[in-house]
Write a structure and sequence with these properties.
binds 5'-O-[(S)-ethoxy(hydroxy)phosphoryl]adenosine, alpha/beta, GMP Synthetase, Chain A, domain 3, Rossmann fold, 2 domains, eight-stranded mixed sheet
């Protein structure tokens, strides 16, 4: 018995203890009993956090799509694998069975092969939330190509950076996308990006919105005719356990995004195991995660985790507000959704709209509610519990990261008693540690510190694409022999964890991680700008909003500050995407700096949050006089 499915608290503690005392035995049993391997591993784990190097299931051979698709065909071939709900509620939903999904993935895999894509090649996927996005991901995995999904809200500049960073050969996109009442010209964005990407030789285009687009001769092809011609069987490529499965970019403390590399076997085992337990998934359930597959949540908990368990996973193309704020609940009712997983920002936005949007629908199918992406505030937690779960469905507040691949700290529903705003207990196999500023571990309960993980887990990212040194510096240098998460956390009297937020230069806005550096880089491109600093301040719906302090060159040309604000936000939209636009921009004579020239963000953060006293020690500033000027002109 491998304890794959934990059902009560006692069992959790038992399993957890085993996972810490005998991690290799623990993971080996799970891997052995629940997955298909072409060849068994020679060694379960090899690790060294100083290099850092982590290898799980070394020597094993597998294909993740065999585990997500083929093995289900015999027992649940006609079961719905992907339940697609389109943007427009009048368009029919699609129930794509395991058999159909298998055939479509195989066809797409054959198309990729005929385009010359081989094992190890990188393929960029820039698609809206349509079934082809899932097919494309799995098709890459089928043939051993490494997918790099770029969220379709990123700008052409951001897309080009990501395509070039990992040297993608091929891009899969669509003519456009639907987003509520709007359409977005995705192909136009790709065309613009590719002007800067000389190594992309082909572009496959899904027809989603029937728009007239330009097809570049020799480079661009419509996907459908190729799929129609393709054979629906493609022998899965035999992959090593540690072969890269995908790259997914996340923001960092420099302007360049970090291409986190996830490998095959450990990622599969961990996402499947966590999915099963966090959602207490059972065969007849209809599971829905509202994330976009462009983020890690969608990779792990719309595609790989659910499919590895043979689940039905809902994929929603639209937005919570279209055609009105009842859309989520209408979908829950329509498909009798049993597990619902969303982000605090969505919960807050929906809570603001009032309960009349909920009351029209029957939500009694729901059993488990999930939240992810940022700390959930107490009010939102209770609103979710009262109005959506009707106090019957446990809320799983799942803490994890792009880098961790799967959920790390979370209640197990019906086993772990929940506590509002607490992610509660570490998953089996996860060994958290809270660290003080001197680098020592803080033991005991009722303490807070910087959150680290002191032992490897199967789905941890193995490196940053093309820059292992940056991987080491970012995650393994702050605290010796530990993975540093970048988050602060506290541990309460019973050992429950509460994540308090980022302690680095990443700001989470509406659940999206935004690095301050790339935004500042974009602003500084403006000819009138001398310098800028971005900080976050609390916002009712987004969690954090962005406040920019900008100093101008003395050009005298830019007297109209409102136009300048628009131009700055336009630049950010072009270089990163609309998600990174600033909510407030204050023009200042200078920025507070230390004697070594570092901007004191701590002070700027307090001012933006409305604090005027208690700014902390300003005596070490090079230019303390600017602080008063900034406070006098702060934007409310
Ligand atoms: C934050 C998303 C509090 C955290 C899966 C983390 C959370 C960052 C939670 C990773 C949570 C995620 N409670 N904070 N339940 N979940 N975070 O890479 O700061 O997009 O480091 O991965 O989101 O964001 P990412």
């Amino acid at each position: 018995m491998s304890n794959y499915h934990i059902k009560n608290l006692e069992e959790y503690y038992q399993v957890y203890r085993k996972s810490v005392r005998f991690p290799e035995v623990f993971w080996e049993e799970i891997a052995e009993e629940h997955f298909q391997w072409y060849k068994r591993w020679d060694k379960v784990l090899e690790w060294d956090f100083t290099k850092p190097e982590v290898k799980w299931f070394q020597g094993a051979k597998l294909n993740i799509t065999e585990n997500c698709l083929d093995r289900h065909l015999r027992i649940r071939g006609d079961k719905t694998a992907i339940l697609f709900e389109p943007n427009n509620p009048d368009e029919p939903s699609q129930h794509i069975t395991y058999k159909q999904l298998h055939a479509r993935v195989n066809k797409m895999a054959n198309v990729l092969k005929s385009e010359g894509i081989q094992k190890g090649d990188r393929v960029c996927i820039y698609l809206p939330m349509i079934p082809e996005l899932a097919f494309a991901i799995l098709a890459c995995a089928r043939i051993g190509a490494i997918h790099s999904v770029v969220f379709a809200g990123f700008s052409s500049t951001a897309l080009a950076t990501r395509i070039n960073d990992c040297d993608c050969k091929l891009v899969i996109t669509s003519d456009g996308s639907y987003r509520g009442s709007k359409t977005i010209d995705l192909k136009g964005i790709v065309d613009e990006a590719l002007e800067k990407c000389p190594n992309v030789s082909s572009v496959l285009v899904v027809n989603r919105i029937d728009s007239k687009i330009e097809m570049k001769e020799g480079r661009d092809k419509w996907l459908q005719p190729l799929l129609d011609e393709a054979f629906d069987e493609c022998t899965p490529e035999v992959m090593d356990a540690e072969d890269p499965l995908f790259i997914l970019y996340t923001s960092g403390s420099t302007g360049k995004p970090k291409g986190m590399v996830h490998t095959t076997a450990g990622y599969m085992v961990y996402t499947a195991y966590t999915f099963k337990n966090i959602f207490q998934y059972r065969e007849q359930d209809i599971y829905w995660c509202t994330a976009d597959i462009g983020w890690i949540t969608g990779h792990s908990y719309i595609v790989y985790g659910p499919l590895a368990n043979g689940a039905t996973s809902v994929m929603f193309e639209g937005v919570p507000s279209y055609p009105d704020f009842g859309r989520f609940w209408e979908i829950v009712d329509k498909h009798k959704v049993t597990q619902f997983y969303t982000a605090p920002t969505a919960i807050r936005a929906l809570a603001k709209e009032g309960v009349e949007h909920i009351e029209k629908f029957d939500l009694s199918s729901l059993k488990v509610l999930g939240t992810v992406g940022e700390p959930i505030n107490e009010e939102a937690w209770h609103w979710y519990d009262d109005n959506i779960g009707k106090k019957k469905s446990p809320i799983v507040d799942t803490w994890w990261q792009t880098e961790t691949g799967g959920v790390m700290i979370s209640p197990i529903p019906f086993a772990t008693p929940t506590k509002p705003t607490y992610a509660t207990l570490p998953f089996p196999g996860i060994q958290p540690a809270l660290m003080d500023e001197n680098g020592s571990e803080i033991h005991g309960n009722q303490v807070d510190g910087r959150l680290c993980i002191k032992f490897p887990w199967p789905s941890m990212a193995r490196t940053i694409w093309g820059n292992h040194e940056r991987y080491r510096d970012t995650y393994f240098s702050a605290f010796q022999n530990k993975y540093f998460t970048g988050d602060g956390a506290l541990r309460d009297e019973v050992g429950y964890y509460r994540i308090t937020g980022r302690v680095d230069d990443v700001i989470i806005v509406s659940g999206h991680n935004l690095g301050t550096a790339p935004i500042e880089d974009a602003i500084n491109e403006h000819p009138a700008v001398a310098e800028s600093a971005i900080v976050g301040y609390p916002h009712d719906i987004k969690g954090n909003a962005l406040y920019g302090y900008v100093t101008l060159k003395e050009t005298g040309e830019y007297r109209n500050q409102d136009n300048l604000r628009k131009e700055i936000n336009q630049l950010i939209t072009e270089m990163i995407g609309p998600i990174a636009k600033l909510d407030k921009i204050q023009f200042t004579a200078g920025l507070p700096k230390t004697r070594s020239g570092k901007i004191m963000r701590r002070i700027l953060r307090k001012i933006a949050s409305g604090e005027t006293t208690n700014l902390g020690d300003t005596s070490t500033l090079l230019n303390p006089e600017v602080v008063q000027e900034i406070m006098d002109n702060v934007l409310k």
